[in-house]
Design brief:
The structure is a homotetramer of 211-residue chains. The first copy, chain A, is an all-alpha fold and 211 residues long. Chain A has two domains: 47 residues, Homeodomain-like (Arc Repressor Mutant, subunit A); 135 residues, Orthogonal Bundle (Tetracycline Repressor, domain 2). Chain A has nine helices and no strands. Chains in contact: A-B, C-D. Chain A binds a DNA duplex (21 and 21 nucleotides) through helix 1, helix 2 and helix 3. Chains A, B, C, D: This is HTH tetR-type domain-containing protein.
Chain lengths: 211, 211, 211, 211
DNA sequence: AATGAATGAGTATTCATTCAT
DNA sequence: TATGAATGAATACTCATTCAT
């Protein structure tokens, strides 16, 4: 049960605690001062361990960030799709689905906006992050396609893969810009427009109950 | 007539030429090796001037990048809206407009994808870039609103500001991800879906001639 | 019965085996990656014991090297003089003696040239090695003097101590440079010249049987 | 007029002075504390310049050492062979030549014994030094062969290349061990033995005037 | 006896920026 | 105007050694 970002695999309780303290310290410092602005010594210091210990648990500053972000993305992902699937089962309308997606996305992005900022920058800057985000995007598209497939008759679009991608793109850029830069105009108007655009595009009748 | 990025305002022809040589050298090097990966000495060397001269023309490495990117954005912007306005006058359909927008956006983004990459990263990393992009976004939204306003009857959306923003977001994220990461699925399918989504959303009849 | 290089003196068989495993692992790794390039953790790892155990048996990485090299030197020494004494008894000529010495020296140096390299460097770098080599040299000189003394009439030289030293020096530098750097010119010519120089110097008639 | 060890080629007097100060500081510190024991910051400090300046003039600590040692070797070399050639012209005996060689070698090695120590260690440790010494050895052998060739009739040896090598080896090891470790026995006896061995080997009549 | 987690001092090198010439 | 020599703070990572278990 080892992985890429871990050097020493902690077995004992005390070790696990140290590793967690390092992760927490790093999250706090990366959020405050950015990734480049934080160094291993500081992280170790804040976690109450030595630099050596830092390097015993993580090959790298980057390895630590990669772990933080991939965990974060996995958490968000799971939470969002769980709720969406429930809603499909409950017979919500297409527009309601889009609104829920927006609310969930909004919440998850506002959890740690500074980390989001870092991740968004890194994906343009570092190959490993580019790859990680690409994988995540593929997964997300596949899940959206899965959800859409279950909606049969009411679907307006036919090329589900392409539809999933453009809808995801519209969601993401809007969520990100709101979370990171703040909304240009009132959030509600923006989100309502986003729900409208995606619902009208995806569904024949956006206000009819799905399935 | 001084501005933020300039220290010395070149009056003589020889000065202007030096400044341009510095800008060209920087564009080439930033594209090749990234922003962090390029240093002032290299830029000066490639431009055939001394480091001292570099700092005579630009306060900073960042100032130079800021200038490069704002120029680039202004160029793209002008070109895109020029063509779009012409098309509105020529009585194209909504869908055709969206397709043209996509083609223009695609071309402009593929001109210097490495610089785009840098800009996209910097906007999440550096306050000055955040601001520059915010201003640009506001301008772009205003221009889109202007275009839409001219379409009167055929417009489906009512909150033009919000509509302009979400449509711009959908465009941008899609363009960027294609330009920087390459398309996940075939480009044509993706672009067609994007045109469909935005056209169906903005217009009552996406296939009727506007105006 | 303790000595400098040992912390714990192993009494049980299992302990002795561990100690030997550590020595073997170290010899292999020092040869491959040099002394500075090898660390205690690696040695312990290759020997299948923990770092703690390493430090239970050796005060130091250096202590281990010192032991390896002094063992090695002792082995070589014994083998060489054993054979030489046999030859004196068998009535060989002076030149034949020199040739045999060269062959024996050559073989012993080519056994572990990388360790030789390390030792040659350390003797100029580290006081303990300087001392160790000095002691070894004195021993060797004494033994050569012993051999020469037994040759009575045929000896050309009178200051046996000085003669032993310069002959040993000529042998050593030649052996070392061949073993470590490879011969500049053909080995046989070099070795024949060396045998000639030392035989002509030491003996009245280099080709008469000694004794 | 650039070379391997120099980054910035000093043209101005002040630059040249700085470079020299760095070389002097390094020689002093390497001698005192060894090569590994000295760092760039110290050298710069002792020379009264900044670390940055150090790296402007030398790519490396090693580059600096390489320069110091190759200069040193060139100086010694020139001085020794100059005098030897003069002596051949003056009709000295073979034995006198060997004695002079020893005196010259002794003096040059005692000039900076700590640097000698470092060089002797590095040649077993670092490829670049191995190479440098190999080149030097080839040169020296060639020069000795040149000298010997001029002695025609009185020469006892026929394979001049091999003879030059083994004689050089005997000289070197003896010089080095005296310079670095101090003589085991009285220096004069050792040197006399060395002169005797080499003279008797090289010449038919070691005490006849050459040429 | 044995383990291996933890320590933290130590070091080479870069580069944005300045300023004397 | 232009030069380029000089600065020195800043940073990631290693590894010999210890010691609680």
């Amino acid at each position: 049960m080892s992985n890429d970002t871990t050097v020493r695999v902690p077995q004992q309780a005390r070790s696990i605690e140290k590793r967690n303290r390092l992760v927490d310290a790093a999250m706090a410092l990366f959020g405050e001062k950015g990734f480049q602005g934080t160094n291993a010594k500081e992280i170790a210091g804040k976690a109450g361990v030595s630099v050596g210990t830092f390097y015993a648990y993580f090959t790298d500053k980057k390895a630590l960030l990669l772990e933080i972000l991939s965990r974060h993305m996995a958490d968000v992902d799971a939470a969002v799709f769980e709720e969406l699937r429930a809603m499909v089962r409950d017979g919500a309308t297409g527009r309601e689905m889009m609104r829920l997606t927006i609310r969930l996305g909004h919440d998850s992005h506002h959890h740690a906006p500074e980390l989001l900022r870092i991740m968004l920058a890194m994906r343009y800057t570092d190959e490993d992050f580019t790859r990680m985000v690409a994988v995540e995007n593929r997964d997300m598209t596949a899940k959206i396609v899965g959800l859409l497939s279950a909606m049969g008759d009411n679907l307006r679009v036919t090329d589900l893969d392409a539809a999933a991608r453009v809808v995801a793109n519209a969601f993401e850029e809007t969520m990100h810009s709101v979370a990171v830069f703040g909304p240009d105009i009132e959030q509600d108007r923006l989100y309502e427009a986003l729900a409208d655009m995606t619902a009208v595009y995806l569904f024949k009748d956006p206000d009819a109950p799905l399935k």
